[in-house]
Amino acid sequence: MVNKIYLLSPWSETKYRVPLNSLNYIKFYLLDHGYQAEIIDCMHYDRNLKYLIGKLKGSKRPIIGITAYTRERFHAYDLIKRLRKEIPDSLIVVGGRHFGSLAVETLGELPQVNIVVRGEGEITFKEICDSVKNNKGFEDVLGISYKNRNDIVHNPDRPLEKNLDNFRNFDINHLPDPKTHTLTLSTKTDNSKFFIVYATRGCAFKCIFCSLTAERVRLRSINNIIREIENKIKITGVRNVKFGDSSLTIKKEFVVDLCEEIIRKKLNIMFSCYSRVDVDPEILNHMKKAGLVSVEVALESGSPRVLKSIKKNIRLDQFEKYIKETYKLRIKVFVFCMISFPDETVEDAEMTISLIKKLSEYIYLASLQVTRILPDAALFKIAKERGVVAKDFSWFEPFAETRDGSMFKLSIYSTIPLYIEGLTEQDIVKKLDEFDGMRKKDFVYMSYIVRSIKDNLRRGSLKNMSIRLFTRKTKVALLNLFSALRNSRKEKYYHSTHKRM
Fold first, then answer.
1. Average pLDDT in the 325-350 region?
2. Fold for domain 5-154?
3. For a designed S-S bond to 220, which of 109, 164, 242, 279 qualifies (C-beta 3.0 to 4.6 A apart)?
4. At residue 138, what are phi and psi to the nearest 5 degrees?
């Protein structure tokens, strides 16, 4: 009897409709090698897992793969414990950056887990399935940790797969269930539809707060990327594309070749991407001709000292030159900043706010958030060494950040500790408020207001809204309206050439 294979994502307070990228990669790699796997996203079903358990309970010795973000780890732990209790003969395999970076802790704290996958999961998970199918042990499977009686065994790491064309997270003949997931999402500014494509893997830089670092950057073939774009256009009718890579612009020759093929094939797309600022202006021109309409840039800090300490490896003059060049090309720039890095002072934070204010004419949107600590980032080790978190801090013990709630935009992030060292909570809240005041003045547009009104009406919230809340929302709407009118010239500047995104 063939063991059924299930790939699970845990329940979450926030409901996302984006396809489960990491699980889809595994699903389609298994499909390409003769296995059938079913993805179940628990967030779209009951929190007590009644649907899931009922579905899986009839399976004999199922192979269950589970992944989770750090922010939703406690839901994943509950899922694992419940599965072991209800389906005791299952093989429970966990992976992803959270579990993979905490292999020893996972096997120690969650005895219900059989195997932890370290690193990329496609080939490894397939070989686990091969071992089960052939009734073999797991000693020859690279990139896993598992228990052998009372010992934890760490098999050698799996080398990174060089040919990314061997992996895919999309199949035109196996589309996601439209009841739970959709290929197209909506922009936050004006509700325009877009779909996501990944062209690369890995980031060559070593920012201390980031978990996306890798040995090297790998690239899909241009033809492989173009084929996915064409298929998604065919299915959705949408020609807005977001490249979800941590930075599409790392390899100059690759970006130029991709843009030239987009132009040659006359795809007529408009696309956005993440980008570093140390980019040759020539690349921006190529990207603009191919349909680039917006870029997302992680500046992090306006302090040269902080940028050096976090190993960002960029200069402020590069940032200023970059955003002015993009503005000249009518490419929208979304800038992300952070506050409360190691050794950051109030003066450093003020430099960040001052820089964004000074260059606001060239920036479409900007945001500021408090630095969070992740288990697979270098910042976690620094936090333990400096006492920002306890030396024995456990990602498996109950945790909820108790400091000022205004530091969080979403409650789900309260499960992740903040890095607060040099700045006090009061300092941080004050700077967040200053930045928010600037944001409301310089970065509110009419399209944002229209979307906000539509969202409120769609939810039918007006009839359940108190007079006090209605009054407050009305005041905020009027302030936003004045800001939008003030910024209308900037918005018209962009939209005079951008029709879709």
1. 96
2. Rossmann fold (3.40.50)
3. 164
4. -110, 15
What average pLDDT does range 173-201 have in this prediction? 86
Output Rg (C-alpha) for the chain, integer angstroms.
Answer: 24
The strand order across the sheet containing 270-275 reads: 184-186, 193-197, 240-243, 270-275, 292-300, 332-339, 365-370
Q: Which amino acid, 22?
A: S
Distance CA 236, CA 125 (A): 31
Closest C-alpha among 229, 163, 197 to residue 29: 163
pTM reported for the whole predicted model: 0.91
Specify the CATH architecture of the domain 183-375+422-442. Answer: Alpha-Beta Barrel (3.20)
> What are 426's two structure tokens?
């009061």
> What's the average model confidence in pLDDT over 230-250?
94
Which two three-digit tokens encode residue 174? Answer: 């196996």
Angle, CA 115 vertex, CA 92 and CA 60 arms, to 5°: 30
More confident residue, 186 or 290: 290
**Measured between alpha carbons, how far is 271 from 291 in angstroms, rounded to an integer?**
6
Q: Would you place residue 21 in the very low, low, confident or very high pLDDT band (cuts 50, 70, 90)?
A: very high
User: Is residue 240 a contact partner of residue 234, using CB atoms and an 8 Å limit?
Assistant: no
Sorting pLDDT into bands at 50, 70 and 90, what band is 500? very low
Cβ 286 vs Cβ 275: under 8 Å: no
Contacts of 450 (CB under 8 A, 6+ apart): 190
Answer for the pair 247, 275: CB distance below 8 angstroms, yes or no: yes
The CA distance from 495 to 447, in Å, is 11
Output the average pLDDT for the chain.
91
Mean pLDDT computed over 233-252: 93
For residue 362, count CB atoms less than 10 angstroms from its CB and return exposed for 0-12, middle for 13-18, buried for 19 or more. Answer: middle
Q: What are 10's two structure tokens? A: 């845990």
**pLDDT on residue 405:** 72
CA angle 233, 273, 350 (to 5 degrees): 150
Percent of the chain with pLDDT over 70: 92
Distance (Å, whole) CA 179 – CA 164: 30
Who's near 26: CB < 8 A, 6+ residues apart? 7, 37, 65, 121, 122, 125, 126
pLDDT tens digits, one per residue of 393-452: 999 999 998 887 777 766 778 999 999 999 999 999 999 999 999 998 898 887 777 766
How many residues would you count in the chain? 501
Helices assigned H by DSSP within 134-183: none
Partners of residue 70 on adjacent β-strands: none
Residue 149 has pLDDT above 90, yes or no: no
Backbone CA torsion sign across 65, 214, 182, 191 = positive
Query: How far apart, in whole angstroms, are the C-alpha atoms of residue 293 and residue 309?
Result: 32
Predicted pLDDT at 501: 45
Angle between helix 446-458 and helix 488-495 axes, rounded to 10 deg: 90
Q: N- to C-terminal Cα distance for the chain?
A: 50
